[in-house]
Amino acid sequence: MLRAAGLACKVVFKVNEGRPNAVDRLKAGAIQLAVYTTAGAPAFFDEKAIRRSAVTHRVPCISTMSGARAAAEAMAETRSHPGVELAGDLRAGKDDGVKTAR
Fold first, then answer.
1. Which among 40, 70, 85, 102 would be 20 to 30 A from 93, CA to CA?
2. Rounded to a whole number, what is the largest CA-CA distance in the chain?
3. How far apart are CA 96 and CA 12, in angstroms?
4. Which superfamily, per CATH, for 3-91?
5. Does residue 22 contact residue 50 with C-beta atoms inside 8 Å?
6. Model confidence over 2-59: pLDDT tens digits?
7. How far from 30 is each of 21, 47, 89, CA to CA, in Å?
């Protein structure tokens, strides 16, 4: 679904599957958005490690397929409507002429 929205995606190892894994890639700055799902107690360690690393390295993470679908739809909309901007672009200091209250 993310690829269908025009996003470059890559499946990477979970922490317990080998190296380089998701945490290694987050630390290296190679991941801009982490999408992961878990199933059962054994996956709790991986989820915790990925989420902690994503937060530490300021990478947004999505842990449900419904969340991933909503994000993909929003990103696809920004590509098809040039006047629509992502909130992250605004926070990054992109000057769009809009002033926000502080």
1. 70
2. 48
3. 35
4. Methylglyoxal synthase-like domain (3.40.50.1380)
5. yes
6. 777 677 888 899 888 899 999 999 999 999 999 988 777 767 888 899 999 999 999 9
7. 11, 18, 19
Task: Give yes or no for residue 85 having a pLDDT over 50.
Answer: yes
Q: What sign does the dihedral 23-3-6-95 (CA atoms) show?
A: negative
Distance in angstroms between the alpha carbons of the first and the last residue of the chain: 36
Spatial distance between the Cα atoms of 66 and 85, rounded to a whole number of angstroms: 21
Which pLDDT value is given to residue 44? 82
Instruction: Name the helix (H) or strand (E) containing 62.
Output: strand 61-62
CA distance 46 to 43: 5
Tokens 């599957």 correspond to what residue?
17
Phi-psi region of 92 (alpha: psi -120 to 50; beta: other; left: phi over 0): alpha
